[in-house]
Amino acid sequence: MVVQWGDEQRKPWDVGFRELVEGEPLMGFLILAGALQMEPGEWLPAVSDAVPEVLRYVEDGRAPERSRVLYIVEMVARAARVATVDERWPAVWGEAVQRLIALLDDSAEAVRRAAGLALAEAPEPEIVLDALLDRFSREEADSVRAGLVVAIGEVGGESVLPWLAERTNEAALAVAAWVSIARIGGEVPVDRFVDALCGDPAPYDGLHGIDSSSDLLEWAVEPLTPESQTEVLIALTANPAFSTAVRTVAGELATDRPLTAEALVPVFGRLLETSERGWAAARLGDLAPASAGYADRLFALIDDAGPAEKLGKFVVAEVRDMALWALLKLRDRRAVAPQLALCTERMRAERPFIGSGWLPSPPGEVPILRDLFGHAPEFADEVLPWVLDLLPDCDAMVVLQVTRLLTDWGPVAAPAVPQLAPALGSEDPRAVEWCADALRVIGVADGQVLDALAEATHRRELPWAARSAAATAFAVLGGDQAAADELLAEGLARGEGATVERLAALGPAAAHHVPALRAFDCSRPADEVAVARALARLTGDAAEAVPVLLGVLAEMKPKQAYETEGAAVRGLLELGPLPAATAPLLRRILATDERLTLWGDVPRERAFRRDVARLLANCG
Prior knowledge:
This protein is mainly alpha-helical.
């Protein structure tokens, strides 16, 4: 990666260093830190030249941002532990150690602490440990002493456990000491650890970027076992000052470690008694059915109109929203009538769709019809009458939400068919398209529905998307396929993405489109997956699709799975047993308990893992 610097193209490291020395120190620091994190293979060969210059900058007592810039040396040393650097590095680091030791006596507290932390990252035990202990014996500032405790624990390991144990009796240092003991593998009593965390956090401001109680708690519990983490978080919920910190840390742990997320259910349950109850309810919904034990407490919150955290770009939820959401995820029928009443209340108040949550909902935003009920067709007897009352003369966005819900329910939504048919005559082409697709998936039609689909197919004023949806539904439900063939052939020629799904719905009856489907532009991985799945449906042969879908999974970056990878897994599940040689790839995907995806969505994460596990069980 290069960036433009005047008339030159230079590496980010070079640009950042020039800005640091000659221009804006803070900007230089940010550029350098970004380059270190993003391009280790690019910048490590340069550190032999850069580290001495960075240290020279820090040694100038007049230079601004000295302690922050010194963090660059800490990052370099940390990376050098595990990376291959040029042959000059040992000599450079040997000189850097002596200069960092000298900086332990700097007049600025922040520089003294940063120097100690940098020394800890690439330790020279014979030299560094003695220097750190010596500085500690002379140090008076609690913030520096806390940093030195961390550094001494990193360098000394088990040899300093007795020394660290003595520090746990000093209020200002107890958290640092317990964290260091936990990192080394020593025993950390939860009650004393919690007492330490409830003390004065001031000595930890700025340590490893800590600038809030949430940051401090996250850093402190990271080395603990999952069981101890849960115990600590539960104990801290008794302290109102820690509610937000517990919420933040527990949420990150649940997202980053989905395999152990259910262990945090008691933490979220305790948070139902705090100001974070709305957020906690949402998390309990994510972790259903493991959260079933809190159903009654959630039900007690369905009249709570207190504001919950803003969970999405547009919608500010109320506590009752989150409680009802969780109960519906638990398939608790007590939530159905209150939820429908709440939806009615909001619509009658003419609150804008964008403000009341009726637009398509990104992950984490207040749920809407599909999110509320799409997973639970057993509620159709109560929900369908309410939903069908929405259809006559309603806004297109409501039609979208209704049809998405009915599509999720499939044949269970058959009672809605008579109300969907008139919507095919809408002047809004989007409503026509969505209703036609829903009718196709529901799979139930009578003469009136077929006539309405045929009429929509031949309405020349409608765009291709609406007409092709109507023609495909007409063919799938028993009508003639000629119009669908014509429109879908046109879509293939134009590269219309919706064509692939509609051809797949026709199945073997559309086999004559296979040559054109193979020629479809698959410049995006998502299109490649869709075409592979469609070809398998049209030909009845999985041989062509399996290598394509496995190829998408093979190219999946570590711990990163998006919708394309999820679609590939679902496609493979449709194709029957896989070769035994596929097993190692699937095991590699499941090999970590850390978050596999960047969705930030616990339910989708769990569904992806479950589908991959099913594939693994299906390997021959």
